[in-house]
Amino acid sequence: xxxxxxxxxxxxxxxxxxxxxxxxxxxxxxxxxxxxxxxxxxxxxxxxxxxxxxxxxxxxxxxxxxxxxxxxxxxxxxxxxxxxxxxxxxxxxxxxxxxxxxxxxxxxxxxxxxxxxxxxxxxxxxxxxxxxxxxxxxxxxxxxxxxxxxxxxxxxxxxxxxxxxxxxxxxxxxxxxxxxx
Length: 181
What we know:
This protein has helices at residues 7-23, 46-60, 82-99, 141-144, 152-167, 171-174; strands at 29-31, 34-38, 41-45, 64-66, 106-115, 118-128, 133-140. The protein is an alpha/beta fold. Helix 2 packs across helix 5. The chain is globular, with a radius of gyration of 15 Å. The N and C termini lie close together (11 Å).
């Protein structure tokens, strides 16, 4: 619905999310360099991944660690349907993780899109070592308002807080049946 995958894929995501919840703290989570978009400038930023890994370790005591290599995914094509972009881009990250060796059991990928010094959208993905999406989240101005500064600290606090809140939820709340929720 409106860009969500079929229920069969959502069921796999729910299963992977439940496994992620159950093993967080036991299995390493690699944090890939973050795709940082400011206007037309797009860069993969390792320092943002390092800061995010530090933030998540401080909040969870789970073994989050920044990874050196950026994800090998096509250049993003962000259009108007953010939900469709979230899932299509998630499939690209999943294909990359599936085809590339991983040092950790999970990989966290993040994209931060901004303009005029403000954040416009954030996409967050957790993939298991087989490339299955175990978590995905879209944030936009409906979640954080129109004035979130396009800077590292505010962004990583939002991502860290959101991930912790979502980890308390049932898989059916994070991946609603038929993509409706």
